[in-house]
Amino acid sequence: MIQLGIFAKTFNRKTAAKLADAIALSGYDCTQFNMASIGLDTLPSTVDDVQLEAVKRDFAASSVAIPVISGTYNMIAPDPKVVEEGRHGFHVLAEASKALGYSTITLCTGTRHASDKWKIHPDNAGEEAWSAFRAELDRLIEIAEVHDVVLGVEPEPSNVISSPQTARRLLDEVGSKRVKTVFDPFNLVDWSKRDNASDILLRAYDLLADSTSIIHAQDMRSDGKPCAPGTGFIDFSRLLNLFFRGGFSGPVIAHGFEESEAASTAEFLRGLLPSRESHR
Length: 280
Known about the structure:
This protein is an alpha/beta fold. It has one domain: TIM Barrel (Alpha-Beta Barrel).
């Protein structure tokens, strides 16, 4: 059954119990978790088993699942120490997957920008950057195999995997069941081409639907800024219908808006999901 979720970082709560309650009360079945939500780094150097047990207990009490966790670091940072520290944190998340129940760890495919993993750099499009990314990805695939997790690769305009086309190239080259894609329409549409957004997303769907394990529901305003689904120009009804008719059954994770919009966004997206009865 398809689950409706939200980024945990949408909410600012002091405890896992209060966070889980806020997610559930806003109308969501699951969350894309982030270790920062419990006061750690997104990629922590270590995680205490007691903390993990508390999170597991509190989320189970609120009936909120954790199918995915954020594990983003700059996979091709110019400084190799940044990459090594990120890989170590990824390993910690992979080890914690059994305790919290998530099967997917999302990635930042990286940029040659020295200080910001979300900023573009002209070298990103070169073969050297591609080779560096592939080498790092192969290391993560080895870790993923050991801990039985999936790597969620999301095309980001500022990163090495910058488009549906580069994501398709990666999938064809790697050919690993450990590598899936995260489909976020916000990162696939140039706001200046918003009049053609539906056609652009259809082409992206054709390239990536067979590998998509998570949909990120993030809308875009006419000025290119993120906004809650249903308040921008992206046609979520058409997009989600394509995926559902094609057999998609993963989580739909909303983000890109404030906590005050969480409940109304859940109501909007819930209306686009297949009815629970149809899955019985």
